[in-house]
Amino acid sequence: xxELSVGFSxxxxxxxxxxxxxxxxxxxxxxxxxxxxxxxxxxxxxxVLIDISQAEHHIANIKLVIPNEQLKPIKxxxxxxxxxxYEILNLSNGIRLFEATSxxxxxxxxxxxxxxxxxxxxxxxGEIKLSYQLYANELAKRTxxxxxxxxxxNMSSVVLYSDLTRHSTHNLSLRVPENWTxxxxxxxxxxxxxxxxxxxDELVDSPVESGLNEYHSFVVDNIPYELVIWGKGNYNxxxxxxxxxxxxxxxxxxxxxxxxxxxxxxxxxxxxxxxxTEHHNSTIIQRSRYAFNERDDYIRFLATAAHELIHAWNVxxxxxxGLFPYDYQKENYSNLLWLVEGSTSYFQYQLLLRGKLISAxxxxxxxxxxxxxxQHKPGREIQSISQASFDKWQDQxxxxxxxxxxxxxxxxxxxxxxxxxxxLNKTDNKVSYRDIHQWLFEQHSLPKTYVEQDVISxxxxxxxxxxxxxWENSVSKPRKVNFDYLLKQAGLELYYGKEVKQSAxxxxxxxxxxxxxxxxxxxxxxxxxxSGVTLGDVIIALDGLRVKDDDLKKRLKNxxxxxxxxxxxxxxxxxxSKLITLxxxxxxxxxxxxxxxxxxxxxxxxxxxxxxxxxxxxx
Length: 619
Prior knowledge:
Blueprint: H1 2-33, E1 46-54, E2 59-66, E3 74-77, E4 95-102, E5 109-114, E6 117-121, E7 128-135, E8 137-138, E9 144-146, E10 150-153, E11 170-175, E12 181-184, E13 187-188, E14 194-197, H2 200-204, E15 208-211, E16 214-220, E17 223-230, H3 237-248, E18 263-270, E19 275-278, E20 282-288, H4 295-310, H5 337-354, H6 360-375, H7 385-390, H8 398-404, H9 410-426, H10 433-443, H11 452-463, H12 468-474, H13 483-488, E21 492-495, E22 502-505, E23 508-513, E24 516-522, H14 527-531, E25 538-542, E26 545-546, H15 552-556, E27 564-571, E28 574-581, E29 583-586, E30 591-594, H16 600-610
Parallel strand pairs: 1-11, 17-18, 18-20
Antiparallel strand pairs: 1-2, 2-7, 3-6, 4-7, 5-6, 8-9, 9-10, 10-15, 11-14, 12-15, 13-14, 16-17, 19-20, 21-30, 22-29, 23-24, 24-25, 25-26, 25-27, 27-28
Helix pairs in contact: 3-4, 4-5, 5-9, 6-9, 10-11
């Protein structure tokens, strides 16, 4: 009996250990593959087949097999926007030939009840099968594009979902032309063209690139990275791989952990499309096929890659309230989008500098460009960065935007810079802006979110100082920036050359027009603004002579600041003329350079800010 009792006890302990290990493994699996915040349900998987048999016509056929245990009507929807772009899009405009059937193939009653919703009424419990044709010819929006060489598919513009299937595993299969290869940040399925998403949210945040692509892989700190390139261009793929390897190794300077098990860079070298979008563990970058060879172009590419990589932490791992869980059917508002995008823009060049991918002089150039744009942004006097964040969904851009708004990227960058220096100065360079992002990563990773007060509290916790007043004056209100003072703290200064030469300035931006130069922007309170020149005017003459240049700046070089000249233009096809008294601006581009005799305090802050020693020269 004693031996039997001992044996039973050991078996029980063994069983308990097995149960414990099983639960730990389950929790580990879902912590890795399931976006935080969504509970795994007992629902069965959704099977998705994308059949690309008419690639040259930009057409695919989509089939969904969906488990169902109810008889009530079910609403299947496409999102009205995609992650990474804060704008309502018309994602459902390419769907035709919609059909719904039961598991035995009998047609089901359905109706389209709005632009992106199809309501299906089951006739019995069991599988529902949906099929539809998809037109995919929207490359620039980075939503869906199919041609005879590749397919790029952001699944938010491809796969329907319902409230019942959002949390279900999605098994994705592609049927593609021969010799194509498929790539995604998703877990691989049972063949080279199949993938597994733990739920709909992971599916739509993990685009697929399939086609005749150039492929590279590399490993940094035991994390596998992939680079997939579509399109020919003047890039050097070996150099890109080498530099990306250096770039990804710099993120430990901000965060102590990597939030992904692998990462995929998708690069489109193309024509007529540019931009980039961050995703769960991947990014899609689009650039002109000829925008890699020149040094400035290549730096912009690397900066874009850095920006999207940083987003794997900032917004994908920690996110403001209002952006989690995503509501795919309407705007998701937050007054902290500047921290999501602006601080990412701020860090991107720092990572390049710390990885020696750019020089100090090239870093200074990137800062100078930000300052010049800010100086010619009258909207800085009107809108706060907090308001700009909330209003991003209706951001107009263009002439009105420049004159009456600020930008969450550019002005968000400057706000991040101001906050970084505030932290460094208050803590004798012991705490930086990088630390608040590590703090958000530690304290507010999903499913937690954060609000303004959380960030303010984090700043106080890290620095020992209150940031309430700073936040009110720098985030909640429009902020004036003294760049001379700001740069001086790091031993730097603004520089327009040994002798600051002045040139004539009108405040007008133009583009070529068949009859002259069309006005595309007039800076508020500039000489042109005060004279009454406005957006859409077509300038045909200055000072009585026809304008023949393709840029107004070239013609203005013939005049002096303070000179009053007549400007002739068409408005509503009527010839008009006004007098404009030209202002002045520095003739040379703004530069940033080290001061001649920096002190120890300036050098110390410079090192804490940039991660490099104070430069003896800016070569």
